[in-house]
Amino acid sequence: MRYIHRMPFVLLMLIAMVWMQSCKSTRAVAEGEAVRDLPARQIIKRHYKNELDFKTVVGRMHVNYDNGSSSQGVNLSFRMEKDKAIWLSATMNLAKVYITPERVSFYNKLDNSYFDGDFTYLSHLLGTELDFEKVQNMLLGQAMFNLRDDSYNSLVVNNNYQLKPVKDMDFLKVLFQVEPANFKIGRQLLSEPEAGRQLDIEYKTYQQVAEQIFPEEIGISARENGKETRIDIKYRNIEFNRKVRFPYSIPKGYKEINLKGEL
């Protein structure tokens, strides 16, 4: 796990991105009241009915990172084309991240290193099989797994609708909480008890922008064998459906990071 400490915002930002609309036209979303005995199928139906609709998004985010032994804050620019690409750039282009359905790539100018591969390492890091769609859903306040594929039990917990699978997945336990105002994800918890891994993503607040609902603040906790890494995110200056480019080229002479040795 030493690469997490060496490049925290590069690797962990792959799981920590979400978007909000422009501050000029945003407003906080009022809390709703959860209705007891609402069937799980209705909760799931409303969750997907409110799924966001856009082609591209650009903006900035501030990320605070703390792994217990070191901490830092970083400002990032990001761009996204839905279902196609996610792009991040740190201040002064000191690091860049580029993700597509086939590829996870990043480079770091601080130590002249780069990685260019698939989702295998990220999946291992988070303790669950990941692909582009799951990462994208997580970033947008949508359930990482397709809730329509399984049966769930529902109950109200802390004014959220809690969804738990009737039958647990092999080796993996999942739990989703859906907020009642707009049926966006309030929390999603994935754990792999046998491996001592847990990923806890809490969507602390949402906001309404251009008639759509987007995350505003997110807290992420990744635990493994008693060690915890926390990431807190705030977003600003977001715009939708602008024409975007994804400039990305690994500089010559950089040393490739072999993450296979970490698995």
Question: What features would you describe in this structure?
Answer:
13% of the residues lie in helices and 43% in strands. By secondary structure, the chain is mostly beta strands. It is globular. The protein has helices at residues 2-6, 8-12, 40-49, 120-126, 132-139, and strands at residues 26-28, 56-66, 71-81, 85-90, 95-99, 104-108, 113-117, 152-157, 160-165, 173-178, 185-192, 197-209, 212-224, 227-240, 255-256. The chain is built from 5 helices and 15 strands. Strand 4 (85-90) and strand 5 form a beta hairpin. The chain has a 15-stranded mixed beta sheet that branches.
Report the biggest beta sheet as strand number plus sense, adding barrel if it closes: 15 strands, mixed
Helicity range of the residues? 10-25%
Secondary-structure element sequence?
HHEHEEEEEEHHEEEEEEEE
Q: DSSP strand (E) fraction?
A: 35-45%
Give the low-confidence spans.
1-9, 15-26
Q: Kindly provide the radius of gyration, computed on alpha-carbon positions and rounded to a whole number of angstroms.
A: 18 Å
Would you tell me the structural class of the helices and strands? mainly beta
The span between the termini is 9 Å
- Principal-axes geometry comes out as globular
> What is the averaged pLDDT score?
83
Give the quaternary arrangement of the chains.
single chain
Number of helices: 5
